[in-house]
């Protein structure tokens, strides 16, 4: 099994997790204004990404620029990886590629612990994205502990590019934000990512 093969029910059962989906996870996070460069890029590229309507197009034209903006806003103190192999424990199905990973290290040549957040890009199905992101978040926790950098929380997000939903793994509970954000709320999306990374 790999990250992409898990269903939400399977990942919760396999790793003995409780699901909590009734909370707004980041109610008081300060929005962060997008740069003029990002706004101009998205204005030009969103119609193309949505017209192509593939995960690859949405990842390249919408998601990656937004995540790169987060890294810029945090003065490149965090590394951002795209499409990286993140094999942590094949015996438990914690293997495969992650769409995007943030690590609390400025190093870009190699992935170093601790991994703070994973981002899963999906064309349509949020449910499949939640399962995959949850498995990747568990892998991040295992990776961090193994490397001697345990974190109290690991964060995640699932996105279609135009809709974003955030997750938090704390002890044996997977919290799924009951609110989804669209691109009209980009400052809130940027603010949440910056908050997650800075408070990790």
What does this structure look like?
The model has no long low-confidence stretch (mean pLDDT 96). It contains five helices and eight strands; from the N terminus they run H-E-H-H-E-E-E-H-E-E-E-E-H. The protein has a single domain (3-199), classed as tt1808, chain A. With 200 residues, the chain is of the alpha+beta class. Helix 1 runs parallel beside helix 4 (126-146). Strand 4, helix 4 (126-146) and strand 5 form a beta-alpha-beta unit. It has helices spanning 8-14, 36-52, 55-73, 126-146, 186-199; strands spanning 18-20, 79-85, 97-103, 115-121, 153-159, 163-170, 173-176, 181-182. Strands 1, 2, 3, 4, 5, 6, 7 and 8 form an eight-stranded mixed beta sheet that branches.
